[in-house]
Here is the input.
Amino acid sequence: MRLNTKNLISGGIFILVAVIGLWLNTDHTLGSARRMGPGYMPMLSFGLLGVLGAIVFLGGLFNGPDPLARWTRLEVMAVPLGIVAFFAGYFIADATGLFTGWYPLGWGAFAGCLALSVAPGWRPIGLVHAGLAVFGLMLEQFGLIASITTMCIVAAFADPTHRVKGVIGMIIFLCVLCWLVFIYELDIRVPVWPVFLTQ
Amino acid sequence: MELLIQNLAHGFSVALSVENVLFAFIGCVIGTAIGVLPGIGPVATISLLLPITFGQPATTAIIMLAGIYYGSQYGGSTTAILLNLPGEVSSVVTTLEGYKMARRGRAGAALATAAIGSFFAGTVATIFVAASGPLLTSVALSFGPADYFSLMLLGLIISAVLAQGSVIKAIAMVVLGVSLGLVGTDVQTGQQRFTFGIPELSDGIGFVTIAMGMFGIAEIILNLERPESRNVLSGNVGSLWLTKEEWKRATPSVLRGTALGSVLGILPGGGAALSAFGSYMMERRLSKYKHEFGTGAIEGVAGPESANNAASQTSFIPLLTLGIPSNAVMALMVGALIIQGIQPGPRMVEAQPDLFWGLIASMWVGNLMLLVINLPLIGVWVKLLQVPYKYMYPAILTFCAIGVYSLNNNVFDVYQMLAFGIFGYLCSKLRMEPAPLLIGFVLGPMMEEHLRRAMLLSRGDAMVFLERPISATLLGIGFIALATMLLPGLRSKKDAALQE
Amino acid sequence: MPGILSRRLLLAAAPSLALASVARAQSWPNGSIRLVVPFAPGGSTDIAARFLADGLSQRLGVTVVVENRAGAGATTGSQVVADAAPDGQTLVMSNIASHAISPTLYGNRVRYNPVSSFSHIAMVITNPSVWVVNKDSGINSLADLVRMAKGKQGGLDMASSGAGSSNHLLIVRFCQQNNIDFTHVPFRGAGPAMQAVIAGQVPMMSDSLPSAAAHIRQGSVRAIAMSSAERHPSFPEVPTFREAGFDLVSTSWFALSGPAGMPAAIVQRLNRETRDFVSTPAAQARFAELGGTAGDMTPEEFTAFVAAEVERWAPVVRASGATVN
Here is the structure.
């Protein structure tokens, strides 16, 4: 057997999405071919996705080899750790009662991405996304400038060649640029400075 | 013919007034700028700028807004080529070959091709709008729901067939895209589907959110993972201008793209995106350099860029002749006209000749301006690639984050983009192409709408898709395209062509 | 580019200087006012809101910024305002969808009460629905429509700009009253629906007057009935439903509301400025072109109006079969 690992996994993803989709779709009425209900098109598309996923999966048993890059032990460990950290972050933030709206989700994403970054190989994906999560967490309370600064600092760790001076210069440049473009020109509705300072 | 020239002359006398030229220029500059900025699209910008236009004469206002629109279509291709960031649906195709060209050190040539192709297509399309606009409207009107459905199905088949790698996986990605497009409120019943009770999802997942996540953010991570390849760019930018060989290859593609785009642009909904994809497929079939597709073939930039620009011009036809907006930007134009006290519709040609012909003439003026603005800028844009990547990526990240937030002023969109970034990274590791997913996502909801409407009107008789000649023809083409790709003999040829 | 964009600031700044003394007299308005439009830009609510924002900016001496928060039948944006501080700095363009239909349509997904969660300020514009038919459909009156619908198996195809819109619900009410079958063909917005009627794919459509007005004037479609109580001054040749013998009156409306508990003085001031503005000749002329009528209600009258609308639409929404759950 010449296993095509990539196709096996992608086929598996397609099948998984199709099964979840079809299961969720049981809430929706199918209707008839004449008067299609909200569930008709999802039934067609998720059904087709499942069939295609199965073809990709079965094909993957023979048309390889196409293995994934080898993972180090730390990288293997970091994935479940990241997932656990995501849910822990979400539920802890939610349970404290201090955070409402999307903040628990943001904390979860932040914790998950940071945990993933313990493995050096996952740092690009982990830290870039952690930066985004921080941006989401801070933007509406701490304002644009603080959010950009923090996001860039977090994301800068994704590239080991960054130096402190360069990062500072880059952040100042970006803050000025974003203020000019988004605040001065486009006037988007977002606080520039921390809300608790301006009110 | 004489009348046409007379009308166009009148149009130019309106369009070339100092004020109108000035505002066409301003519109083009703003449009290009927002096209380059990820996230901020023409819809958001035009709605922001609408109040300014209250104080202007109607013609001037519309000329400026039109400039923003086609400027943004053009600007979107700049980021698609340089950063693999498609800001607009229609520039998704440009990333396929344009970004590869940039990575090969031909960013200048790709940008120049896009600029020149767009200008040429814009010129032809302008004449096309002036000469045959009213006539063609009746063609667009004869498209019923069944025909639209078949057209979109054909579009999806095309996008899967022309993707790199496994056709089956590409089709699966299209279907996954269609499925993602189902999230949100069902148009016909108002029922919420797959929203998990999240109000933010009731209008569906945003196109920009998916595009930024799967193309922009995922690309950052992939680039960070391979420091060696990204530095090639800074060392070797290459000539800014096209070589003789490139001219020879691009010219026929531009001609074909212009023709296809002009025709498809008239159809309401998805015209620009469909024509760009259609043109890409056509080039891929017809090119003598099939083996270069996927590694930066100039035909893959020239054709689609011409097609989408031609389509964005001809998409004014339904607005100007019927008063029916073919996309969100055109809907805003209707709003702007109504605020000015002008009802867009068939009588606009007679009632508002200044506006009608002035706008058409200004399209050409605007295209000329885009060329003038952008050709000298190519050097500047290419210089941007020489900025060390470690300083580039935080900037891209920042612009994506703010851009996505500003869509709805909601951080949930930032988290959605985050999720699609991770998913996009996973996809590229598993050789699952994101481009077919995106086009499925865009066309899927429209397809469902037309499917359901067609079946409703035919009282549940699926034969309607084969009985209508337009629909039957389109389905036939789709079937042939699919069959040729799946038949073993032809398929191995394609694989060989792709593997170079 | 900077110079041009800041024209917007200038536009806002000029009147604010002139009215600075007025503004200083009270602590409100304190900085720019946010006017949330619960629909996407470009629609009729958005057009009305931007027009009002422009007028109020000049009268209040501060910028009134339009913010589009579309989604969930206009409830997303309305919810934002219901949750905002009642200081008069955040207002919503309330309308028949967000404050009369959607609360029933979306049921317990809507956390606000359309009446008590808001301080209702002023009616801005009302407009009737109009029924238009394809030129070659052979339908010349509502009576023709009923006859044709009864003769056709599965009922007549009737289009509207969307499920759960006031135009759709008007079709439901009409067909219930007359015991006729119909097939509702919903579209995404009025534009595509109008196109289908012009092309003859669907014989008739129930549309808002502002979006249909141009097409009626151009003669690309034929108007057979208007849902106002009396004939519309801009379209005196189109009969009302009542005249044709069908007891139906329906108007859609766009209005100004804020969060519950706004100080009465601010509500009164906004009410006065809005009514003054919409009754200026310029505004009246614009509204007439659109086929709308400027509103003229006190805050109390308007609050009672909203309450009555919710009551009136609830049974129709339930009967329409349009649901979100």
